[in-house]
Amino acid sequence: MSIATHPLTEVTEAEAERVAPPADRPFDLPSAAAARYSVWLLTLIYMLNFVDRQIVNILAEPIKRDLGLADWQLGAMTGLGFAMFYTVLGIPMARLAERLHRGKIIAGCLIVWSGFTVACGLSTSFVQILMARIGVGVGEAGCTPSAQSLIADSVPANKRATALGTFSMGVPIGSLAGLVLGGIVAQSYGWRAAFMVAGAPGVLLALIAFATLRDPRPSGAAADRSNLMPLSAVLAQLRRQPAFWWLGAGSALTAFVGYGQQAFYVSFFLRNYTPELTAAAEQVGFAGPLAFVGVALGIVLGVSGGIGTLIGGRLGDYYAGKEPGGYAMVACLSMLIAGPLLAAVFFMGSGLAILGLLAVPLLFKNMWFGPVFAAIQGMIQQRSRSTATAIFLFVLNAGGLGLGALLTGAISDLFATRYGPAEGVRYALFATSLISFLSAACFWRAAVAMRRAA
């Protein structure tokens, strides 16, 4: 599908009332071209967000050796340290986004997290790299709530899942770029250089966003606080919507699986299949197994995840038009399929086979983004969407990003005492895959709650 024919802003006359209901959007939609530009620029920023967030995963083993870390410290560095401030600061940053120009906030945050990514490469101890990762989390806290609410204000209501699915392509594509870039640079120049190369482009992109990213809210509305809901009122409104909390629980469990596993994919392959991967790297001309795994795993994560987010967004818009729980049911079924496939793939024997077969469960596991975030954007009035998104991300990331990598590392250490570090990480990945069933159950309960509220 070309950008020129992208469906984000295609609306028939019969749908006009659904596009901009006066109570929901007290301003006009931007033009189709402006909306497409905003969505794609924000997708690029979100991609860089995940490059800087996820590059640490491909660098985990070199960092572990260089700084003498245990797996639980890797988990704390990749997950908990980042998530502590990312989750807590998301809400005050969202309140700012409901008062000020969201494009300017996003640009400023981009500069901050890019700078701290460079600082990761200058770290010489666990405490230093942990603090730098916290800084990355501080910068990224203001991006997603501002970007998602801006997108929701830029496209028709019945196209939100598609638009937010497009935006969510930043997750797998950014992970792809981080793994490929990190693997190739680290193999040739070391893990410190990889952090610096990853952080540098953010400054240029921030300048572009600052100069060109339009906030569809008129400047007067952005400055007027009279129609802003207090945080307590937003929470009170969300408390009356059980579907919001079931979606949050399902997303947190999904993120627990995703973040926890991605932090140890590279360790799994290097600990179990180094000879096989070294031979494969030599055949295709890579400098070593780290670069080969980074490129191969990045392609698998990026391509399958990107396809999954796009499909999930389109399915979400389609089934939401059929029945009130359509958004949540797309997420439920995707995790129900992904769970057993993901659990089985780590026992397929060959490292190359596992690398290739991972694409299937990861495609299904990424289908929840667009439908779930579109459902959240429709649960609260326009001027409180950033806050609702930040509250949702607090629930999601406190359980998923904060604990996923840390507990996966702890499970790996536990199994390693009996089976060794190579098999320990395999069993940890298997065990966390089964959490997908709990995620599916939560999404199903959200669908039931959405039907009852309709």
Structure description:
There is one protein chain. By secondary structure, the chain is an all-alpha fold. It has one domain (29-214, 230-453): Up-down Bundle (Growth Hormone, Chain: A). Helix content is 78%, strand content 0%. It has 24 helices and no strands. The chain has helices at residues 16-19, 32-58, 60-67, 71-97, 102-120, 126-140, 143-152, 160-168, 170-189, 191-199, 201-212, 219-223, 231-239, 242-262, 265-284, 289-320, 326-345, 351-357, 359-365, 369-377, 385-399, 401-419, 421-433, 435-453. Helix 14 packs across helix 22 and helix 14 (242-262) packs antiparallel against helix 23. The longest helix is centred in the last third of the chain and has 32 residues, at 289-320. The chain is globular and about 60 Å long. Residues 1-23 have low confidence and may be disordered.
